[in-house]
Amino acid sequence: MPKNRNTFSSLTAWRRRLVSRAVQRGWSWVQEAGAVSAERPGRLRFGRIGTGTRLAFPQGTVFGEPWIELGDHCVIGEHVTLTAGLMPGLDLGSETVLTLGNGVVLGRGSHVIADTAVTIGHDTYCGPYVYITSTNHSYDDPEAPVGKQWPRMEPVEIGPGCWLGTGAVILPGARLGRNVVVAAGAVVRGEVPDHSVVAGAPARVVRSWDPEHGWRPPLRTPAPVPIPEGITPEQLLALAELDPET
Q1: Which candidate among 68, 94, 134, 161 keeps its CA 20 to 30 Å from the CA of 106?
Q2: Positions in the chain whose pLDDT score sits under 50
Q3: Three-class SS of residue 133?
């Protein structure tokens, strides 16, 4: 290959790397500038947005924010939809419609649709693409298109400390207790007791906690060992490098 062709290829690769770095730095700046917080709410005027709470950029659809309250230190991922009311511009009265407790995490692409009261308790974590709704289509009239029939609405309550796996769906009227685990892809309706694991569509309880006997059925893997207090990152790295045979 001629020398000038090699030089041209090297220059082209260098320019591409330069452009790539510039685009990445620019996108990082846009993400930081477009994030929503109590200090920088932008156009969004929530009923409350707590200390340390952040909505990543780009946001999904957000409306009815005067009737949405977000607790402290919540993490709202990219493309998350938060809505109160059937459509923008409605007067929903004096009561909060959608409430997130402190420390709630909503993963990327999740939707929380609150046409009537939806409450998510403290420290509940949701994986990506979780769908929580207080509204469902009705199909009572066999002649009218389903999408044009008046929907049914029921409040939704999710207790504190829950974990909702990727793609879980929480339907109108669902009431989840404390520290409930919802498996990925589960479709939940009705009551779910405290300290339960539910899976399937429709979801059913597949594991629960008994104060006397522990988890039933028993867990298949041992509980993880927590990191002792005071351990530094350097000490953790040193432990990882130890030979388990010695």
Answers
A1: 94
A2: 1
A3: strand
- The phi and psi torsions of 108 (rounded to 5 degrees) equal -50, 135
Residue 168, phi then psi, degrees to nearest 5: -65, 150
Q: Please, which residues have CB within 8 angstroms of residue 121's CB and are 6 or more apart in sequence?
A: 101, 104, 157, 158, 159, 160, 161, 162, 178
Owner of token pair 């929380």: 112
Q: What pTM, to 2 d.p., does this model score? A: 0.85
Reduced 3-state DSSP string for 148-216: HCCCEECCEEECCCCEECCCCEECCCCEECCCCEECCCCEECCEECCCEEEECCCCEEEEEEECCCEEE
CA distance 244 to 134: 52
* Cβ pair 77, 110 in contact under 8 A: yes
Q: What is residue 3's predicted lDDT score, i.e. its pLDDT?
A: 55
| Residues 227, 17: Cα–Cα separation, whole Å | 40
